Amino acid sequence: MPIITRSRQSSICGAVAQSLVLAAFACAPLAGEVDPPVRRPSAGLLVAGAAKLDITPVPGFSLGGHSIDAGTGLGTWLRLYARTIYFEDAQGTPLVLVACELWAMPSGLADRVAELVQTDPALQHIGREDLLIAATHTHHSPANFSSNLFYNRFAGSHGGFDPILHEFLAHRIAASIALAHKKRRPASVAWRQTFVDGLARNRSFEPFLANAEAQAVLQQNRQLGLQPCPEFAVPPAGHNPDPERCRAVYPQVGLLSAVDSRGQLIADAAFVAVHPTVMPNDINLYHSDLFGVAANRAEQHFDTTSGPVVAIFNGAEGDISPAWLRHDVGETLRLGDKLADAIISAHTTQPRELGSRIDNRMRRVAVAGVTTSSGKTSDRPLPGKGQLGGAEDHRTVWHRRGYHEGVRARRERYPGQGHKQPALPVPLVALGVPKNSLPRQAPVAVHHLGNLVLAGIPGEATTVLGMRLRRQISRVHPTKQVALVGLANEYLAYFTTPQEYALQHYEGASMMFGPHVAEVLLRSVYALATPGFTFPSQAPYRFIHHPGPRRHGALRHGPSQRKRRRTHQRILDVFASKIAALTLDFHARAPQWSLTVTDDPMIPEPFLEQLVDGVWTIHPQNSRGWVVTLQRARPRTWSWRAEWFGQPPPPGQWRVRVKTGPTSKVTVAFTVDRDFQPTTLHIEPEV
What we know:
Distance between the termini: 25 Å
Structural class: alpha+beta
Mean pLDDT: 89
Oligomer: single chain
Number of strands: 31
Number of helices: 16
């Protein structure tokens, strides 16, 4: 499937044909089914495997997460990956953990991955309930792949659903699962826990204080040694400056480690609660933000011949921001390295052996029109006025127009929504946010791996609600470790406590089905954790999703010269440099969408290499040094620029190799000495 057409005439004809196709299938649903798993004879012991695959798409998609304030992906800094860890116990029951560097994990994408996995004869023992697929929540991944109308319309600056992007992501994630399964080998698993200070702060402090547990959380974190926010770290005007915000967090970093029989690390699954949103929203690059920095650095630290994978899973981070001082690459690296240090140092703590028995439980839970002990959830989604204004430390343009936190209605405007003030007059909300624009049910999961319980939550829970969810599981399993995985299997925005919802700050205003959904989550997690619950594995798992109108978001003819200049100037501002140490301009064939998964990147990937003892060796900071941007898109050839914003390479013989597909291109070797000056490089013919 070529991304751009081969001539102006064919471009026009293709556009007409595409319009007819989109008109015919504008509202076609995503439907399918996942067969019950066919369990197979087991090896009689625990096995584990891990893999990661690049899921960075082609340029042109709106970035997901910042809505109308989002930029456009015109290149890449830290590439996006799907990181997968495969477990299988002695009875043959699998558990697959997947951390995708995406802004969300819609249920339609997770269901499609499960369907694709079973097309592999070697993976038909994996059922839908065996998969825990989550997003890290980077706001610099593409939008336009959700399986519901609401987020395809509002997650990015350009609305619409791109079925090609959806299939690309589904095939890549499924391929990462197949590769992790292929790499499985006998293993043991252990749990470690540490904490990290200075990584995060509570961005919604007033609602946090409304909870009965608030003071106990602050006191516990004081005893743990967490420091208050420094005076110079106070965020923009309007944000509560209380230094206790840096103690109103869940600072624990949980680490699930799988090690093979030789003591080699297979994988780490790290569980942490913080929004990975340090970089500014208006920089036009795909990247994985601070989680990508942390995962890449930890993988480099543990690098062995076995190629370990470090997958970071987000938790109850609904009201938790990174403790950034400013939005730039320096802060992203600083906070990412802080998290990486915590993951690395956790390996020096005493491990807790977990055992190996796996038990997977998942069910789709109704969230709309559900009667609870405290009231009935809303029958339709309703965005609140505070949602349009943005979070307290990241205002949108609408905040100056009265769309800010704390705006409440005098009476209940819609059943089940409490005193939420609608973002727009109710008739306009009904038009822009139809009743079925969001799923009315969502998957909730509880997975046991020995003495560890993982709870998959379909959205972003706040700190205190996360405590209450963990407490529900501990009521049933008081001796087990508990970790929450947020943004898992579906995305239904925020989940707050009723006390937080009542104040209608950003998080409460973004709770789409009203305050009583929190009780639905609590009782669902409790039911799934209770012994005796069984998933109906003998029936196919059928799914149907309505993503809304189609729109192809991949870049076809740009970017314009003006947009290239603005993008480059913003990169210079954010990377705190007015000139790159190395600049490489080159051409490559126009990328091709392909559902046959290979190692070929959709955006060229450069490697800075040094000649060491006759062998070209990749620079250890390679992944964090390069920025690649599209300069021009022609029918057959695209022009790119790669710029090195890392530290100047040390003295020696160097070259740059660029992977552009099945082939690589290399520059001529050049010498770096102590007086090295910024250099523009050229590409030799393909090799």
